[in-house]
């Protein structure tokens, strides 16, 4: 009765939206009042109905790249085109974008500003980051209007080369990252192919449609398709809840955080080498050294994103293998002094910067 008594149409739309969203706990449902809209509309990509030259301009606007300091590749995607556009412009993208990123030591995929795109473009992004030619089933999409289910697989072949599995990939997200971009971040995270850094994503929908309610000027925006999850598991996905980052940080600081993580990960081989050398040269329980060296060489550091992670992982592994709680790695600040002996702090291995006095008298005293 109260709702029927509302005379202002905009107020009515707001009240209905609040009611529907709270009742169904789904913020993607929106009722709007649009007297100027003449017919049912549907969200469309920025790439619809364009000539080839217009497509090129749109692609260059929505897909940008550069090589950052430290030979880190940076690829920003603001709107993902679909299969038709990517097939048409694949040669251009490989020649002018992808080849310039292939020689980098790590890649940052920036999806912080990507609020939409085409589902058919997902396999292209995943396939260039998927290390092998074996096809992998990465998602299943259910479409309600057609009552159909579509499986998404990686591509058996790609133009150009795939990004090496030995190189780190970081995906940047924000609270505005939505739809197709969320699915890409979720798949890469589930495949353990990328470290997601930034904010929890929007928890949107792969496909939203705006439907006119009867013959009125009121419209219902509703998700009409959903992800059933990688390998068709039917479990919980990112829709509604969003993709939770591996490393949470404000979106505007996500790139800086990602570069710090990549700097740490780039130093990991040196850290492991220093530890191996120290164990070989100093550890008194000589019979346990071969097992420790083997353990260090075979450790999986894919989840390490901070010095704390590294120290915790190294200590747990080394102490378990050696059965010696005295064997300890710790992070040492640049101004901390360590105890005498061959003790190695994680930061020592990352960046050893000895300070030598400038005066001769001080050097002699040292």
Structure overview:
By secondary structure, the chain is an alpha/beta fold. Helix 6 (254-282) runs antiparallel to helix 7. Mean pLDDT is 86; it is low at 39-44 and 346-352. The protein folds into 3 domains: 2-33, no CATH class; 52-248, 2-enoyl-CoA Hydratase, Chain A, domain 1, CATH 3.90.226; 262-322. The longest helix is centred in the last third of the chain and has 29 residues, at 254-282. It is built from 10 helices and 11 strands. Strand 7, helix 5 and strand 8 form a beta-alpha-beta unit. It has a 6-stranded mixed sheet, with helices on both faces. It has helices at residues 9-24, 52-62, 83-102, 122-129, 180-190, 254-282, 289-298, 307-322, 346-350, 360-365, and strands at residues 30-33, 63-68, 72-77, 106-110, 137-143, 148-153, 168-173, 195-198, 207-212, 218-227, 247-248. The N and C termini lie far apart (88 Å).
The name of the CATH architecture of the largest domain is Alpha-Beta Complex
- Which residues form runs of ≥5 with pLDDT under 50? 39-44, 346-352
Could you say how many structural domains there are in total? 3
CATH class of the largest domain: Alpha Beta
Classify the secondary structure makeup into a structural class. Answer: alpha/beta
CATH topology-level name of the largest domain? 2-enoyl-CoA Hydratase, Chain A, domain 1
Strand percent estimate: 15-25%
List SSEs in N-to-C order: HEHEEHEHEEEHEEEEHHHHH
Placed side by side, the strands forming the largest sheet appear as 2-3-4-7-8-11
Biggest sheet layout: 6 strands, mixed
Domain Tail specific protease: 49-250
Protein name: Interphotoreceptor retinoid-binding protein
GO molecular function, one term: serine-type peptidase activity
Keywords: Receptor
